[in-house]
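Here is one chain, start to finish.
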Amino acid sequence: MSEPHRRLSLEEYLALERQSEAKHEFLNGEIFAMTGASLQHNRIVRNVAGILYSQLLGRPCEAFIGDMRLRVEATGLHTYPDIVVVCGEPRLTDAELDTLLNPTLIVEVLSSSTEAYDRGKKFAHYRTIESLAEVVLISQEPVEVERFSRQPEGGGWLLLEANRLEDRLPLPSIGCELPLAAVYERVFGESH
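Its structure:
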């Protein structure tokens, strides 16, 4: 007979995670290993981070890439968005300064293994974050960027899509825009 699966406390998870080489999501006492990313995924994250960095210089918002853990207070999910932008003072969970509570914008680059989760359950977790104004989902192929914007007074989330390299997707919550040609720079080679 096998042993029952032991659930971890939040404190146990954080202690393990802070020592780990790999990153793990945490929810309801269980940890889930996060897989590595493709070359195209990494290029898109780098490109978007560079675009946002240059547009946010000297302004009260800042972008964090991949290693900034996010805690969804309402559900307890701890995860690592590809990019998270915070406007104003970051709210962090403790003195370790490694778990963020108040994102303004989240960017996820979709992959075939995570797309259903990113669009479904993970997005449902994200929608419970009071400070969150926009979520951007970026496909690796084809060219497709989706921006979901929280509507005022419980009006749900509004979708805006961009799918041509000449498109420029506005991000009003942080006063920036994503030129898709720059988002997909070096992702497709010479074919696009």
